Amino acid sequence: MNDYIKESFEGSRKAGLIAAGALDEVKKIIKPGINTEFIDKLCFEYINDHGAYSAPLFYRGFPKSCCTSTNHIVCHGIPSKKILNEGDIVNVDVTALKDGWHGDTSKMFEIGEVPIKAKNLIKATHESLIKAIEILKDGIFLGDIGSVIQSHVEAKGFSVVQDFCGHGIGKKFHQEPSILHFGKKGTGEKIKTGMIFTIEPMINLGNYETKILNDGWTAVTKDKSLSAQFEHTVGITKDSYEVFTKSNSNENL
Ligand code: MF3
Ligand code: CO
Ligand code: CO
């Protein structure tokens, strides 16, 4: 690995660990009756306390430090006074900017007991991300990632959101290339050692189509069906990969 790749991996590792730590804190407090602004405040403070900045805050005018996307919200839900109720599912998406490098990660939380169809959707979405991560190495194609995700979730009757994608990340929050969560094996750009990007499949229980609400941010499923998402920031090595947003306090991704 050359010096620039080493530096970018070290930077992304630090930023990723802080982002993962923020989600660990969310896990400790999330329950029925809290509002999503409380989650936002917690993330803001945790990230600040670790010498980092919440990259979503004021990013292209986004008003909060993280995204909280409940039930039929696909992504970019804005934290608010809205209370989480038993049976809700919510994605919390955090991005830490530490010493010039970004770490971007999100996961699903179940509020109390949730319906079995929601559990199944969450499980399949997480599995699709893990399966995509496991194939990563120098020389595969971007289309291989999309293909793994799409085939896994479509076999279970779910659909892949096409309006939002993963992204290159590093000194910039969002950069080339776009990481599509659907596609064909062996197509698209070749993945190279040193590349750093996110994989963040958004999977719907019903139709794949989305629309954006009047606030200009909140993306929802057109058919109001449930949507789930998980995200990790990864770096490519010659024979494998590193997940920068893996939590220290949990063996699982
Ligand atoms: N974290 C989101 C992503 O995964 C981006 C959020 S941008 C914001 O790319 F402005 F909505 F916060
Ligand atoms: Co992202
Ligand atoms: Co994100």
Report on this model:
By secondary structure, the protein is α+β, with helices and mostly antiparallel strands. The protein is built from four helices and 15 strands. Strands 1, 2, 4 and 5 form a four-stranded antiparallel sheet that branches. Helix 3 runs antiparallel to helix 4. It starts with a helix and ends in a 10-residue tail after the last strand. The model has no long low-confidence stretch (mean pLDDT 98).
Structural descriptors:
single chain; 253 residues; alpha+beta; four-stranded antiparallel sheet; three-stranded antiparallel sheet; 15 strands; binds 2-amino-4-trifluoromethylsulfanyl-butyric acid; binds cobalt (II) ion
**Can you tell me the overall shape?**
globular
Order of helices and strands: HHEEEEEHHEEEEEEEEEE
Uncertain runs with pLDDT below 50, 5 residues or more? none
Radius of gyration: 17 Å
Number of helices: 4
Small-molecule binders here are:
2-amino-4-trifluoromethylsulfanyl-butyric acid, cobalt (II) ion
Major pleated sheet:
4 strands, antiparallel
- Given helix and strand content, the structural type is alpha+beta
Count every beta strand, where a strand is a DSSP E run of 2 or more residues. 15
